[in-house]
Amino acid sequence: MSKFKKIKNGVVYSTNLNFQYETNEDQINFIDPKNQKLTIHIEKKNRNGKTATLIKGFIGSKEDLKNLCKLLQKKCSSGGTVKNNSIIIQGNLREKIIGILEKENYNCKRVGG
Hints:
Blueprint: H1 2-8, E1 37-43, E2 52-56, H2 62-76, E3 80-83, E4 86-90, H3 94-103, E5 107-110
Parallel strand pairs: 1-5
Antiparallel strand pairs: 1-2, 2-4, 3-4
């Protein structure tokens, strides 16, 4: 029920044939990969001692973020997920991920040691 109200802004029914529903979903415009400023981190904390590579700073829709995650998983032959608007790839694959992102024309930066 809350999803319906969120999308339709509280309008349930209208008899006007020309009525257009107003939505309150935030539409994020597509940003060219060259204008993205992605940061690549290595994280060992909270992963049961295992290393993970974090990609932060992506601006775009959740669908685009998931597609980028799937691409990185496939190219790295590793597992991963999307969480808190960042991509988490299992393993210390920072150099490989930077190479893949540069081939896809993303602007990325190595962060940390």
